[in-house]
Structure prediction request, 432 residues.
Amino acid sequence: MIYENTSNAFKLPVFCLISPRETSKRTRNEVYSFRMTKVNAKNKRLYFVDAIRAWAILMMLQGHFIDGLLDNAFRDDSNLVFGVWKYFRGITAPVFFTISGFIFTYLLIKAPEQGLENPRVKKGIKRGLELLLIGYLLRLNLFGLFKGEVYSSFYLVDVLHCIGLSILGIIVIYIATANSKRWVMPFILVTTTIVLFIFEPWYKTVNFHVFPQWVANYFTKANGSVFTIIPWFGYATFGSFASVLFYRFRDSKRLYPIAMGICALLGTLLIFYSSDAFLAFSGATGISLFEAIFYNNYLFIRLGDVLLVFSVFMLFRRFLTNRTLLRLGQSTLSIYIIHFIILYGSFTGLGLYGFFHHTVRPVILVPGAILFIVVCSYVALRYEDHKASIKQSLYVYLNAARKRLEYALMFGFNLLRNFSLKLAKLFGLIKN
Prediction:
């Protein structure tokens, strides 16, 4: 959960030397004042941010389920229902990357410490590396390991890898600009987005075979990667840029009306007019790059979609306070892991995708998607409720397993040592 600035919210008056009756009265007033400031602090939560995350993760669940299992006979772009579903499914990933950059940066710059002294830097590095590790673990097949093989799919890059690297990239920009003027960081962030989006037609054709394949997978989809760090890092930096602006104007009474207006206007312009603008730039400058963007302008159009999503959720922010909805927004990693195991068969290779890949009819698929969303969400929330006890039990189990392994190794070492000594004595290599 993200909070707006409440640095002065919990400061209470200093007690004075007054009579017991006055002290008691003042104490009651201060307690009431303290409770009211807590209520006000709760009201200043950025509920819409967690609501966007919840919406994005639910969209991801149904999108992956339907796209993975829908019979090819029903994949008709001319069908209005399928066309609308396909368009909105394409919004999910840009929203997810943008909101991830927004949330992380908001918490990063909110800390009073600056640069490397900011505790959020260490937490962010840990989080980024954790996402990279989880991304690889989810693509691990235990049966392959038992056979001494690591399948090539293990090295493919997915959304967790890119978000983890995006967090690390934002940290680099934050540290590099920590001692600079206030405008430098947001300028670099938004410039990164623009550069990555504009030059996408060029670098997407680059051959990255000079790198080892597991490295090249971060830059090209040629080997089967689902996402690549470029251009998707651009959405994370844009979310980071928006977060910086949002935080700096957090105390303005017109923050939400202005933010909603800018998002709605800019989003509409990007969706409906950015392609024509690039074509006009190409005609005026003769630069073929702008023409290439015109023919495949999905990055800027999707950015416009993201801005419209932000504006809608900010508009209805007062109604987005449902506890379950907000908890879903705070449990996206758990939901992602659970859905990956059920749908794609992480660790075992036994998932719905393997059994029903592109074979299910819509009449079965739609209620199946609803059930899939409910199951993944329920299991994730139950896990979050008992996460501390689960981790403690896991720690106890692993610690006991470690001790048993140590005992077994020591026992085996002693057996080997005694056997070696007896063997050496038998052949007269050593004396008693």
Remarks:
- Residues 51-362 form one domain.
- The CA atoms of residues 395 and 401 lie 10 Å apart.
- The longest helix spans residues 387-426.
- The chain has 18 helices and no strands.
